[in-house]
Design brief:
The complex is a heterodimer of chains A (134) and B (674). Chain A has helices at 3-29, 36-45; strands at residues 31-34, 54-60, 66-68, 73-79, 84-90, 102-109, 115-123. Chain A is of the alpha+beta class and 134 residues long. Chain A folds into two domains: 1-30; 31-123, OB fold (Dihydrolipoamide Acetyltransferase, E2P), CATH 2.40.50.140. Chain A has a five-stranded mixed beta barrel. Chain A is elongated. With 674 residues, chain B is of the alpha+beta class. Chain B has helices at residues 2-26, 31-60, 67-72, 79-84, 90-111, 120-140, 165-180, 182-194, 200-231, 241-266, 270-293, 307-328, 345-377, 385-405, 416-440, 445-476, 480-490, 492-513, 630-648, 666-673; strands spanning 381-382, 518-524, 529-533, 539-552, 555-566, 569-581, 593-595, 597-600, 604-613, 620-628. Classes of the chains: A alpha+beta (134), B alpha+beta (674). Chains A and B meet through α1, β1 and β7 of A and α13, β1, α14 and β9 of B.
């Protein structure tokens, strides 16, 4: 076999593995990123969306945040303006988490209608820019 | 002053346009236009420098009539951070970017020597055109000299997370890396336009590619350090889109630094190298686009603004033009030699390139996947760290192995006896490390592979140094230590490169260490303790000593002091803070921020975060993390920079570009020397 052909085989092998790893990775770790309205729609159409790991992007409803520092439990409501969900999160919220901030909640919507979050990311207006005061 | 700044932006805009037009038009023939383009880069830098100085003066004078000054600084901001306010916000960072680009544009005109001058008019044209784009964005969408209708008494202040020494140096380093890619890109375009597509242009940009690779590396490492000490989530890399955006050009540049050697030695891969440089530059613009447009949800990105559209348009236009030009020159880019054997340095470099590009592609794909899936399937699907780790750990390990294999294989074709002789020591070293780890009880497959492949690579580098030094010793009778120094000094590119390989090993080992982190959260009253067992076999006891509260220059500080014991023996105290930043009147600004308490050691870092106080009492919530081997990330970064500087250092033996006929590989040459 010519060196060029052998090399091509090696290259195909590498490209193939990269492709396979990517496809498998997305299949195994991909998560839906939904707004509360989309989530409500999906859940009513297909109950398997309960208990499915996903991400919800929304805004924290002002005045709904309760922090219990002793048990490290944070609960709040999120909304996109039409649909709202309560969220419970055990853990330490990021510094940027406040009333009315935009958040990405990672977790599962359970049958009780509450999103049990495993992670809460607060999106500060920007890393570089002040969060405008409401 | 602001007026002067604004005016000089317009001057820069016109000069940039002029430089772009004259450079392209002057091309190879019109000397007057060529001179004019060259001078345009000087004038461009001058005008932009005036703009930068105007903005800094406004910042230092607290001229809050400027929207930018009012938005990012305040009267009580420490002086140190007033400097960095220049690039703390979108508009200022665009100005910073354009200015540094114009500085590079000028330097390349001044420093490029003799036979590479033919490229310079085109280089001036490309750099001016890119700078003009940035100036256009400022003038029409994000003007740092924009005025407010009223003058506020005080500014909003700088985000506390940016008030960290790492943030003063990290952005400029990363920008310098991003920006300096424009120079190799400009040379690539110049080579294509002038049809001078031999390896000459590669020689002209050799230092520039290294400079930008080095700045990107420093920027990435500093960014990791900043995330680690400032963000308080306990790690240094989260595969955030912004981080990925910085990693992508680094990966492509790394591939280029390797593949360029094949073109220099064998006249192969001409198309590939050009594509890599154009790709790296487009990725740097792409990175700027995604950090500034808000198009991809990232925890940290600039606020959404119309600036994104400018960048997208520029990206599409630049990609179309560059690749159209590239395609039109393809017939001139035929290779001068062909691959002779699978087992050759060329082939191993090619595989290394494929792996690097594969990693870059998967990172790009994962970063863009939410947009792609939404566009194609109508639902947004995100991938996070699990995806990137799952894909990149195997690819990264394969790449690490190539780091050790590549230098062992001769150019053109390696013989079996040669391979045996080359691989014996490194393989033994790798197996030896593997055995030690197995005996020590390590069972994590990823870590086992990372560290033992690291041992293999280290063996390769050690063998190369030892053989080289021995050869010098025999040939010139130099004492061994002196031979080492001479070896490094005479072959900076090669042996500096090996030092970078050692740094890569250190980094991989450190990354593998993160598989063994342990953490716990605890609510403690003063006097109470929490225990945490580290994977280094020690038990650490953290005792909450109490809370102190006081006011500092621009913040109210709540600090917790923690006594730390290892297996019962006191080893020191840690301090972690919650900071509430305030303005000059004492009103709170921003959300409270956390100062992490870190005790760094060779084996583990103790990492403590004060999460909050329970109802204002001294009872406090902490998160304790034991992070193994983090110190080695910073040390590896340091070694990497040293290696890069050695390669970059001027002087040394000139590396001549060899034609396709004369390429005795280093391994072969050493054999001949003995």
């Amino acid at each position: 076999m010519k060196a060029g052909t052998k090399f091509a085989l090696g290259a195909v092998l590498i490209v193939g593995s990269v492709g396979y790893l990517m496809a498998a990775g997305i299949k195994q770790t991909g998560q839906y990123f939904l707004t509360p309205s989309e989530l409500a729609q999906r859940v009513s159409a297909d109950p398997s969306f309960y208990d499915l790991g996903l991400k919800v992007g929304a805004r924290v409803v002002p005045g709904t945040v309760t922090k219990e520092i002793a048990t490290q439990t944070l609960s709040f409501h999120i909304t996109d303006g039409t649909v709202s969900y309560p969220v419970v999160f055990k853990g330490l919220p990021p510094d940027t988490f406040t009333d009315s901030v935009e958040v990405v909640v990672e977790g599962r919507l359970q049958r009780d209608g509450v999103i049990h979050a495993t992670n809460v990311l607060a999106k500060c207006g920007s890393r570089y820019e002040a969060v405008p005061k409401a | 002053m602001p007026l002067l700044g604004h005016l000089s932006l317009w001057v820069a805009f016109l000069v940039g346009l002029w430089g772009g037009i004259t450079g392209f038009a002057g091309g190879a023939h019109r000397r007057d236009l060529q001179q004019s383009a060259r001078h345009a880069t000087f004038a461009l830098f001058g005008a932009l420098l005036v703009a930068v100085i105007s903005l800094e003066i406004a910042i230092f004078r607290h001229d809050f009539s400027l929207e930018y000054v009012a938005a990012y600084t305040s009267r009580n901001l420490p002086t140190f951070y007033l400097w960095s306010a220049l690039y703390a916000g979108q508009k200022g960072s665009l100005l910073f970017w354009a200015t540094v680009l114009s500085l590079f544009a000028m330097l390349v005109q001044l420093m490029t020597s003799g036979r590479h001058r033919v490229y310079l008019p085109y280089v001036a044209a490309v750099t001016c055109a890119v700078a003009t784009f940035f100036i256009t964005v400022m003038l029409f969408a994000a003007n740092p000299f924009e005025r407010l209708a009223f003058v506020p008494l005080d500014g909003r202040g700088m985000n506390p997370q940016l008030q960290n020494p790492g943030m003063v140096f990290h952005p400029p380093m990363l920008y310098l890396g991003y920006i300096s890619i424009t120079i190799p890109f400009a040379f690539a375009i110049a080579a294509l336009l002038s049809k001078r597509l031999d390896s000459d242009w590669l020689v002209a940009i050799r230092k520039w590619t290294l400079v930008s690779w080095l700045f990107l590396s420093i920027g990435l490492i500093l960014g990791m350090w900043w995330a680690y000490v400032e963000l308080g989530w306990g790690g240094y890399w989260a595969w955030d889109p912004v981080e990925n955006a910085a990693l992508l050009p680094w990966l492509v540049m790394t591939a280029f630094l390797h593949s360029v050697m094949i073109q220099e030695k064998r006249g192969m891969l001409k198309k590939w190298n050009l594509a890599l440089i154009i790709g790296a530059w487009l990725l740097s613009i792409f990175g700027t686009f995604i950090t500034r447009s808000g198009v991809i949800a990232s925890v940290h990105s600039f606020t959404q603004s119309s600036v994104g559209y400018f960048f997208l348009a520029f990206l599409v236009l630049a990609a179309a033009l560059s690749f159209a030009l590239y395609a039109s020159r393809l017939p001139l880019l035929e290779a001068e030699a062909t691959l002779e054997s699978m087992v050759s340095r060329e082939a191993s470099f090619l595989f290394n390139n494929l792996l690097l590009i594969g990693i870059a592609f998967s990172v790009l794909w994962g970063t863009l996947f939410p947009i792609l899936s939404e566009a194609i399937k109508g639902t947004k699907i995100t991938v996070g760290p699990p995806f990137f780790n799952q894909v990149n750990v195997p690819l990264g390990l394969a790449l690490l192995a190539m780091t050790g294999i590549g230098p062992l294989i001769a150019w053109r074709r390696a013989s079996i006896p040669n391979l045996k002789r080359q691989f014996a020591v490194p393989l033994t070293s790798g197996v030896f490390v593997l055995l030690i780890l197995l005996v020590a009880g390590v069972r994590d497959v990823g870590a086992l592979m990372a560290v033992s492949i690291g041992g293999f690579v280290f063996g390769t580098v050690a063998q190369e140094f030892a053989r080289g030094a021995r050869a010098r010793h025999r040939q010139y009778g130099e004492p061994t230590p002196y031979a080492f120094v001479q070896l490094l000094a005479r072959n900076r590119r090669r042996y500096g490169g090996y030092i970078v390989h050692v740094a890569i090993v250190l980094l991989f080992v450190a990354f593998a260490g993160m598989a063994f982190k342990t953490e716990t959260e605890a609510t403690l009253r003063p006097g109470e303790s929490a225990e945490l067992k580290g994977r280094d076999g020690h038990v650490y006891t953290f005792t909450h000593l109490g809370i102190s509260q006081y006011n500092a220059l621009n913040r109210q500080v709540t600090a917790a002091l923690i006594d730390v014991r290892r297996d019962g023996k006191a080893i020191g105290r840690l301090r972690t803070e919650k900071r509430q930043h305030v303005d000059a009147l004492g009103n709170p600004t921003f959300e409270p921020s956390t100062e992490v308490g870190i005790m760094s050691g060779l084996r583990v870092d103790l990492y403590v975060v004060l999460a909050g106080l329970v109802n204002g009492t001294e009872q406090a919530v902490f998160r304790f993390t034991i992070n193994p081997l983090v110190w080695w990330v910073w040390f590896g970064g340091f070694v990497l920079v040293i290696g890069g500087l050695i390669v970059l250092w001027p002087g040394g033996a000139p590396v001549a570009v060899k034609g396709p006929s004369s390429q005795a590989g280093y391994a072969v040459k050493l054999e001949a020397e003995r």
